[in-house]
Design a protein that fits this description.
Elements lengths: L2 H10 L16 H15 L3 E6 L4 H4 L4 E3 L1 H10 L5 E5 L2 H10 L5 E3 L15 H13 L6 E3 L2 E9 L4 H9 L3 E3 L4 H9 L2 E7 L2 H10 L7 E4 L10 H6 L2 E4 L11 H10 L4 E4 L5 H6 L2 E2 L2 H10 L5 E5 L2 H10 L5 E4 L15 H12 L11 H15 L4
């Protein structure tokens, strides 16, 4: 994938997503860098910039903290000296930061068009309907005996605040790809069944690694009556998987792994758990973005890796470790998270210079009626030791 060409195309259409003032549309890279650095220096400790690993290089270089969703959630929960949290990521991440922030803080998302298609695959009314239908099919969703619950909801952090609030109110918890196994263990200690949403692949891959048989996993399709299941299927299931997915990670295939192994017989493949089960099974290793980074960095000199995750992270690893390792994307065309890509240096500059002038653009505010219960679900996650 030609990132430079993609950047150029994006610059030509940048004002079409969220309107920016004309003065922010046609700036040279050098001018933007200088002005972003100047605005950040002026704000000093009043601002903290969080950058997800999938952000473009032109943005993430200004981040005070970089990481995956878990690492950044923890940073948001502890950086209480800053007045402003500028989250260079997507909407659900900024919502989580707003839920965890101190009362005096404001959370800002540089581009409001930066969403997540996976998060959009689980709507609050769909989850409420699923909960009612599962009860009608014989699943106990309340506390049944010895403090245990029939069904525990677990939501991936890639979900809306409204979903997190429902989960928190019903005894559930949030997870990330880093701590999914620890969270699911916590949930099974408290309930007989889990419903895992919105990404079926993270749930399936984690359950499979934990020894849950595939025949004890079922997929709940929110667009079908009764989730597309019958009562017996639901009764025998230990893990109910919401029918959602990541449009980036499901692009990786076993055919790509076969092609890589033909070209590099001694090479290794590492995949993100949002990939499909067959891809994870065919890989040499799998794990979260933080896990992938550490595994590749810590591998022996001369190792060749194909990495099945977002292309910006792969490119940075390629450049960082070029002296003693060969790293390629598993997808020869590169898998780009187009919504992460929407956070541009132009937007970051506009946000920061607005803060210098005393204007807060794009503040993310979770409604109070959601915040309490969503915080319960997030705090339960943050209390778990991986």
């Amino acid at each position: 994938m030609d990132i430079k060409l993609l950047n150029q195309v994006e610059k030509e259409s940048i004002g079409e997503r969220q309107p920016l003032p004309e003065t922010y549309l046609r700036l040279s890279d050098d001018e933007m860098d200088a002005r972003i650095a100047a605005a950040k220096a002026t704000l000093g400790s009043r601002v903290v910039i969080l950058g997800h690993h999938y952000q473009r290089d032109e943005v993430i270089k200004f981040a005070d903290f970089t990481g995956d969703s878990l690492k950044l959630a923890r940073a948001a929960a502890t950086k209480h000296e800053a007045e402003y949290i500028v989250f260079c990521g997507v909407h659900f991440m900024a919502e989580s930061a707003d839920i965890l922030r101190a009362p005096h803080q404001k959370v800002v998302l540089p581009d409001l068009a930066a969403g997540c298609s996976m998060a959009d695959m689980a709507a609050p009314d769909q989850l409420e309907m699923a909960w009612r239908e599962m009860e009608q099919m014989g699943v106990r969703t309340d506390v049944v005996e010895n403090g245990r619950q029939g069904m525990i909801p677990v939501t991936y952090i890639n979900s809306s605040a409204a979903i997190k609030a429902f989960v928190g109110a019903h005894g559930g918890i949030v997870c990330t790809s880093t701590n999914a196994a620890a969270v699911m263990t916590w949930a099974w200690e408290r309930g007989d069944k889990l419903i895992m949403l919105p990404d079926q692949h993270l749930g399936r891959n984690t359950g499979w690694k934990m020894g849950v048989p595939l025949d004890q996993m079922v997929v709940w399709d929110p667009n079908e009556m009764w989730g597309g299941l019958d009562a017996e299927q639901l009764k025998t299931a230990k893990l109910v998987l919401w029918k959602g997915h990541c449009s980036v990670h499901t692009r990786f295939t076993t055919q790509q792994i076969t092609a890589f192994r033909k070209q590099y017989p001694q090479g290794k493949v590492i995949a993100h758990p949002e990939c499909t089960l067959d891809v994870v099974q065919a890989s040499d290793d799998s794990g979260s973005t933080e896990y992938i980074i550490n595994a590749v960095r810590d591998s022996a000199p001369g190792t060749t890796w194909a990495v099945a995750t977002e292309v910006h992270l792969v490119n940075r690893l390629t450049q960082e470790l070029a002296q003693d390792k060969k790293i390629v994307t598993l997808d020869p065309f590169g898998c780009l998270c187009s919504t992460m890509f929407r956070v541009s240096p132009n937007h970051l500059l506009w946000i920061l210079e607005g803060l210098v002038e005393g204007t807060v653009h794009n503040q993310i505010t979770v409604p109070d009626d959601q915040k309490h219960d969503a915080r319960l679900a997030l705090d339960r996650m943050l209390q778990i030791k991986n």
